[in-house]
Design goal:
Elements: H1 9-18, H2 22-25, H3 32-53, E1 62-66, H4 74-78, E2 83-88, H5 91-100, E3 107-111, E4 124-129, H6 139-152, E5 153-164, H7 182-189, E6 194-201, E7 209-216, E8 235-237, H8 249-257
Parallel strand pairs: 1-2, 1-4, 2-3, 4-5, 6-8
Antiparallel strand pairs: 5-7, 6-7
This protein binds S-adenosylmethionine.
S-adenosylmethionine binds near residues 72, 73 and 135.
Amino acid sequence: MVGKEALNTQYWQELQDKSALAGITLDSSISPADFRIYGDRLAQRQIEMFQRYGQYPLSQSTVIDLGCGLGRVSLPFSRVFASVTAIDINRRILDAGRTYCADATNIVFIENDGATIPLPSSSVEYCYCGGVLQHIKVLSVILDYFREGLRILKPGGLLNYSIQTWMDDIVSGNNIGKRITANDLNKVLSEFDCEALALIEDPKDPVPHLNVVILKKSDEFLASTVQAQLRDTLLVRQDVRTGIWEDLPSYQKFARLWAGPRKNVTFWS
Ligand SMILES: C[S@@+](CC[C@H](N)C(=O)[O-])C[C@H]1O[C@@H](n2cnc3c(N)ncnc32)[C@H](O)[C@@H]1O
């Protein structure tokens, strides 16, 4: 069992103490309007992925938002999913999230231990995690979150996690998590009856990310018999983060931060 200290709880708390919005975007000058618009558009991209790859209708499904923060994605999810379970390690950000999402009646906020998903097996249709795993410094926790997601999904359910793919053990900094590779993930996937459907990559994003999209198999929703391994033939190139915030003032700061050559992808090595 990994203690919360190792999971950077204090780091997230300190960020949030500066500003609830900064606790999510790492940008203390972002305006509430930018924050909301960015969240809406980010959620829309995820909703499109669920519609494209998922097997269940959104309006009859429960979605998990793992590492939900203030709920900038949970809130727009709540407009199209039957219900949203928003989970985070940080109790105080969850309190702020309840306020941010006060208009929605179908979101439940749950504090977790930073490593497990406190829900029964085979109980939800979709499991989403965005902008979280790249900050976790303990590889076993990152991998266990994939196991936990696959455990709680109903057969036919879909997992969609974003990961950064350039990280290197030598990079230091509080907000940088442990490097993750395709090999690491493939070991996890081989433990489940599941199929990797897509690795969605945004070629214009200066920060290399992948959305890893995995289907939990079922008799009803028979997936192909191909093994569940991640391979580069699953790469789908489409806009994930570009096109959703370049018109927002907060983007200028981001662009300056990430100016320069694109990071080398280390995921396949
Ligand atoms: C950069 S924010 C992203 C929030 C949200 N997903 C979004 O896109 O708006 C990262 C969030 O992950 C949470 N978090 C960090 N480590 C976690 C862990 N091990 N388990 C659950 N939540 C975690 C933090 O408390 C924070 O709210």
